[in-house]
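Input sequence (270 aa), recorded before submission:
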Amino acid sequence: MKFFKNIYYNIIKYKFLLSQLVIRDFKIKYKRSVLGVLWSLLYPLLMMAVMALVFSHMFKFSMEGVNYLVYLMSGLVVFNYFSEATNSAMTSITGNSSLINKVYIPKYIFPVAKCLFVGINFVLSLIPLLLIILISGDAAAGTKCYINIYYLLLPFIYVCMFMFTLGVSYILSTIAVFLRDMIYIWGILLTILNYFTPIFYSITILPTWLQNIFKFNPLYLYINATREIVLFSRMPSPLYLLACFLSGFIVMIIGMAVFRKKQNKFIYYL
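Predicted structure, token format:
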């Protein structure tokens, strides 16, 4: 556990550098953009509108007694964060090779910076989702969603999701140093994962044996816990919340261990 304590203390020690990396990513992303950070609000809102049009009207997806728009968007925001964060963090080491080769910087800071940067966009994307929760649905049909006390559990669920994403990011960024094709392989795997995560459909339409397999997907845990709160105003069970924490924490520890084992060899491949 000494290594993991060192990571924590070094992140505190290099917090200024970490903040500068996040700020740099913001500047690069919104360089020469007229609307700037406003795109962080408009983009998810426009994407939600497109997805709602496609699935609710063109493909006629619906669920009886459930606000399908909120169901869809609550899954999308979680999956989009995981997808964007892992894609960005995967190239965080190779993309900063010139900096790594010049001065000593704890290498594990770079994946953290990417996950934090995308995390800020994720938090901003929750604002359009909240608007949809407030204005959509029909109280008479039982599809109206309401703000409830269990919303206080959402930060805990999203911290678990962050840990899981960070762990996967450490693994991917390590592999990408030695195998640059991982960038393309991961794109294919994300597409597969998108369909194996109940985002636009209900897991109940699947055979029982397949449902049990899908439930081992940590993204399903975070999405389903979110839906329990925002759609049904129910608190996920303590056992379910424990599963969310353990899935995130264990994957993060594994990712850090893989990264630690290989980080000294990065210099030969950058």
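Checked by second reader. The chain has one domain: 2-268.
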